[in-house]
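Protein entry
_____________
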Amino acid sequence: MERDLILGMDIGGTKLAVVLSDLKGNILRKVREPTEAEKGPDHVISKLIRMSRRLMEEAGVTADRIVGVGVSCGGPLDTKTGIVYSPPNLPGWDAVPLKSIVESELGLPAIVENDANAGALAEWMFGAGRGYSYVVYMTMGTGIGGGIVIDGKIYHGANDTAGEVGHQILLPDGPPCGCGKRGCLEALCSGPAIARRAREAVKSNPDTLILELAGGRIEEVKSEHVVEAAKKGDKLALKLIEETGWYMGWGIANMVNILNPEVVIIGTIAVAAGDLLLEPIRRTVRRMAMERAASAVKILPAQLGEYVGDLAAVSLVISNLDQLREAER
């Protein structure tokens, strides 16, 4: 029987998803459960294996139809060995041999990849990056992650740490970042960073829709309140979004100068805010990047939305189909 299906695992700090797809990336079946990350890696991985077996049983599928397992997981990790090293959202995952455990339990080859890199591959394969050879992908949510895809291959760097676009330092004396440095792009433009800047601004500008949307409580202000208020024309919110676009544009201009991509794809907050955020980003890139590099790049919102995690896992197997089939022979 020809192997014509893919198993995909998306490991997040709050939720786990396991999907079954065909070789074109059509999701046929999916199960989701809370991660319960606080219970440690053994618990989480055991849950993933149970979910995978249940999914296969419900679909009436045996392992001999599955070509491989794609695993999208927070890093840092080693893609060659599949060992995961202490992701911030997965406490206790200290040198966990995820690849070998999944392969041993399911009897299938597994490919383990950083979730931002896998997301970049998915956007290149199925989303806003289709048709481009030089792609930079950026998440813009709780943190700012990223991935670089060149000619359909993830660029990993010397030891799998390439693509950390959120940790370029823009302001050396700026706000502290979760990585331990100060003034990183992530510390200025992530969801929590936008919320922090908004809370500071609201103190001296209480007559703002941002505060109303947060129920009148400064401590409850979130980035989504800023985006919603900006869409309704609130002056303070628009100023905050413009400022965020300036910082994001600065960071992207650096990458445009270094990597000369055809497209930079931005997810999450940029999708929610749309051109309110994308236009100041584009203006800043045109102003700050080298003219020739800036003229070659498009800056686009991500297209995959809530499906990015599912397709990230699946895309890992699709991009390695030839090697997996060769290894089977």
